[in-house]
Fold this sequence. Notes:
With 468 residues, the protein is mainly β. The protein is 5% helix and 38% strand.
Amino acid sequence: CGSGQSPNGEMFMNFMDYTSSDHIMCMFTLDQKTRMHTTMSQGTYRSLLGTHGLCTQNAAVPGPAASFSFATPPCAGKPFNAINTSTGGPTPGYNWSTNPAANVTISPSPTSAVPAILFGVPGTYTVTLVATNTLNTSTYSTILSVSACPVEPICLDSLKAIRQTDTLRTYTAPVNASVPNCNIAGKTGWLTGTNCYKDREKAQYFAGASYSNTPNPQINSLFVVFDTVGTKGNPNTQIYAKIWASSLINGTPSSSLIAQTKDSLLTILTNTASNNTPIVGNPLHTQSSDRIKVHRFDFVPPVPLPLNGFFASIEMPNSTPGDSLLIFSNTYTNANGSDSSAWVMEFLNNNWRRIKSKYGVNVKLAVIPQITCRLGIGLPEENRLKEDIHFFPNPTNGDFTIITSFNTPRNLTIEWMDCVGKRLEMKELKGVSNETFKSDLGTYPNGLYFLKIRSGNEQVIHKVMVFK
């Protein structure tokens, strides 16, 4: 080769042992070939090539074999993760189904490798997994008898007599010519507040069944929705919130006062006013002006509740002229079959009467007890961390609430970790006693997470399932 030398220039064959008997004559001489074969055949690792059976040109590849299980028997009302134990290659695609399919949710989709399956109602279900790849298709099914999930304890609950569809209202007290100062319309005061009848207290009844899922129930706080139209007076006036026991005979208020707490009228009026509230009634309904003030009365320490129901009441300020309270209610009805669970303590004899019985209308009061459970009754304080920290819901769609009920303030460190222990969030809190904290896990994918809470030398770790 070379410029001006072709076709008679130097050729590569002139430098090789180019003979017809050499099958690799284009690269190596026969002597070079012999030396390389000798080296490879006697080498430590090269000698194993071709003997391990892994390089057989036509080796059979196994097709898919569908299989799955559940770590615990599924029950209705709670999502369960299927454990996919299918084998085979190439990696198959999956399709999950149930028969019947009604009232069953497979999330995030039926083609997920490891879905969460939620059975909405009890029954007998056939769960089927089809695994498919380029070689074959495999089907595996199992029959499940799904019963209702056991009711889990609720360790933080807000009891509401007023439904989310109800509209918050306030009404004037009825005119009654036989009662002094109650004979002029517009001058009678308020049906659910201070009035000319000098009602001592207004109370809302909560049946024991409304908090039967809360073990060892106790009341932490009482939220009251006041109307600024009729809430005013001397800032130093003390307003009492009370908890009364229920009579075992007919469910009327008994003479047994369980607990009471108080705040000044100034403290109540300091709350921010708004034209609607999300905590009770229809959250989309707005008042004509910023009339709503929500105040929280705290019971410190929390007070144990009877199991057969209780009454939450607010004492009306009748002793000082000009002092007035007005509590929101739902829209009243005159129907005899309607709920008549709101009560009034009369001025003259301290007797309790239903508002329906005294004033002829059915209403429910916008008072919301917040109750918690105390699981470790009698434990020493240093061992109470686990018993005095509660959370819900679990599983969660992202919104998560942590509540504490310590008798003495504590410093806490709260950490969120993923399933392999990687820290996602951490916050430190000082002087925590009876508190409520919110966490948002909605930005994280579905799966298992760990909540770790530390205080001094103590710590608790809980598993939390995110299912959106």
